[in-house]
Amino acid sequence: MEEYIEKTLENLRKNNMEAFYAKDAEEAKEMLRGFLGEGDEITVGGSVTLYKTGILEMLKTGPYKYYDRYEKGLSQEETAEIFRKAFTCDDYISSSNAITENGELYNVDGNSNRVAAILYGPKRVFIVAGKNKIVKDINEAVRRVKTLAAPKNCERLKKQTPCSVNGECISLSKEEPLICEGCRTSERICCNYVISAMQRQKGRITVIIIDEEIGY
Ligand code: SF4
Asked: What is the pTM of this model?
């Protein structure tokens, strides 16, 4: 295991999160399967990583009460109901926009159902992330979202924002943009900024870092 991954795992543990290493996506999926209980109520945060690792498929076909936000034909109200169900679920599964070597999770949301569930509600939260999500510190995490995660997500979600056209946040035209500076479009996906540092509830959050580049 590369040193920076080991350091990140150690510091996540110091912050009262469980932290595990998976050599590839398949191992991460099987590890997660081992944590989930039969009949568990489960839902997920929007994530390319969960799709690419096969975790979404595993949840759909497994022995769980899975509230599938991606099910075809859901009305807006049904989707919103699934988002609300997250707060009383046994397990919430998501990725993270960035993970610092200091053991912090950094997430930025537009709708904010994902950051809300990471913060409070579901009994357990599982974060599955490729090693490409690891950054040195919060400053680098902010930059990662503004130059990579947000532009790519805007492109994927077909949001008309400056970063989906220019490839980076409009705030970067300033010399030292503040963390929450950005566009003022109605489609902005950066609205709530959450750093998960030292946790009071030990072990509520489990992080699985995959030794592969996956998601963004
Ligand atoms: S604030 Fe707007 S332009 Fe900046 S990264 Fe977010 S969506 Fe893109």
From this structure: 0.97
Whether 152 is in a domain gets the answer: no
Name the residue with tokens 């997250």: 86
Q: What is the rounded distance in angstroms from the CA atom of residue 114 to the CA atom of residue 148?
A: 19
What's the rounded Cα separation, in Å, for the pair 66 and 39?
9
13-27, 58-72, 170-184: the lowest-pLDDT one: 170-184
In SS3 terms, 163-176 reads as HHHHCCCHHHHCCC
Q: How far apart are CA 95 and CA 133, in angstroms?
A: 9
Query: What string of DSSP letters covers 58-76?
Result: HHHHSSSEE--TT-TT--H
- Smallest CA separation from ligand 1 atom 4, residue: 169
Query: Which atom of ligand 1 is the closest one to the Cα of 146?
Result: 5
Count CB neighbours of 92 within 10 A: 26
Q: What is the pLDDT of residues 143-179, one digit of tens each?
A: 999 999 999 999 999 999 999 999 999 999 888 889 9
Strands 105-109 and 98-100: antiparallel
The SS3 of residue 113 is helix
- CATH number of residue 37's parent domain: 3.40.50.10420
pLDDT score, position 175: 84
- The whole domain housing 113 covers 3-135+196-210
Give the number of other Cβ atoms within 10 Å of residue 199's Cβ.
Answer: 15
Ligand 1 binding pocket mutation candidate from 109, 189, 192, 193 (most atoms within 8 A of CB): 189
